Amino acid sequence: MFTFTPIGYVRSPYRQKFAIPRQPGLVPAARGEVVFTGEFADPNCLREIEQFSHLWLLFRFHETAARGWSPTVQPPRLGGKDRVGVFASRSTFRPNGIGLSAVTNLGWEHRDGELVLQVGGLDLLDGTPIIDIKPYLPYADSIAAATGGYAETAPGNAFAVTFSAAADEALAALAATYPDLRQLVTAVLEQDPRPAWRQRDPDDKQYGMSLYDLNIKWRVYPDGLEVVRIEPAGLED
Amino acid sequence: MFTFTPIGYVRSPYRQKFAIPRQPGLVPAARGEVVFTGEFADPNCLREIEQFSHLWLLFRFHETAARGWSPTVQPPRLGGKDRVGVFASRSTFRPNGIGLSAVTNLGWEHRDGELVLQVGGLDLLDGTPIIDIKPYLPYADSIAAATGGYAETAPGNAFAVTFSAAADEALAALAATYPDLRQLVTAVLEQDPRPAWRQRDPDDKQYGMSLYDLNIKWRVYPDGLEVVRIEPAGLED
Fold this sequence. Notes:
32% strand, YaeB-like fold, 237 residues, Elongation Factor Tu (Ef-tu), domain 3, homodimer, six-stranded antiparallel beta barrel, mainly beta, four-stranded mixed beta sheet
């Protein structure tokens, strides 16, 4: 057994697993940051990192790690029905609960006494502990000829996302705080974050998710999704 | 702090760090295997893994982990002179000591009561503890547009490798046990595994390294390397 100490944690718009895209890079508007802690909050550790356009984040699946693992899992890409081995999946329910995400490197800064590294295309929950950061080395890491089996291509066609008049007003009022919010909400919802078995099917429910400190409510129609309301968290139905 | 339990360990031709290529995939002839241990020696964990041509290995830098880390390191690619931040490098001397390698998936089998996964393009020391195996997902992991800074391209031109008559005889005698040995020795040595500061310079030393249970001895000349002898380990000068 080995012990690991987080080098920092993530600040992310994603406050619940439900809304998170299933792989990094699918939602480029999802910007976040790594906040370094303790002895790792040392800018020397980041010297020349600006040379690299992309970085690997190694992180702890902190929300699900306590729930353990099982030898087989049901990936969303197979409709949540067929089972594959845990080592043939990127499931969070895995031995040792470590995740791996390639993100874009948007630079680091000192801000309010903290050392923070900005990243894009993030797919991590707010608060996720970071174990390591490595430069993405195209000559070793980018394998164009690799075949990806049941996950060969990116998830299917985008679902059309529209905004109600009330949601449009809310976006306008929030523009100073969250300038990219429309883009982020669209990018998250056009992937239809509902459970795999009802992907692309309309139903009569109102769905909700948290992004930043906001609640986003939407409905699913035969021809797409409509964002009905965007409200500060705490104003629950 | 988190604790991690290895899921298995690596069997590799590389018995010392000196000979290991600096990134995976540089020496395709370097085949090895992951031997699963304990509850992870369960073929269900590998179900459908044959769908993926490449896999990520997450592993422990077990030989160097005890030596800790420092905020800056001197990458071989910069001649071992200039310093970069540890998170801008793939150095083994890093917080938490976890490595990441993409390898080719050559299939798994039960052999002599063990569950083993064969891999190619391996760059890990014999005995390396494996923490996780993940499928390589081209749509998320292969980022052709990424820029790699000081490590943009694969290491430089190959050094010419020749074999003495004695080395040729040894290869012939060992062909039944190690059919790819010439290819492996050539691929390892053409990268010139000497320290970065003397790369490509001739000198008058005889060098040695271990591969499998063999000692490989070579000399460096102005126009390339010559493998002088290949002997079973234990027959030291």
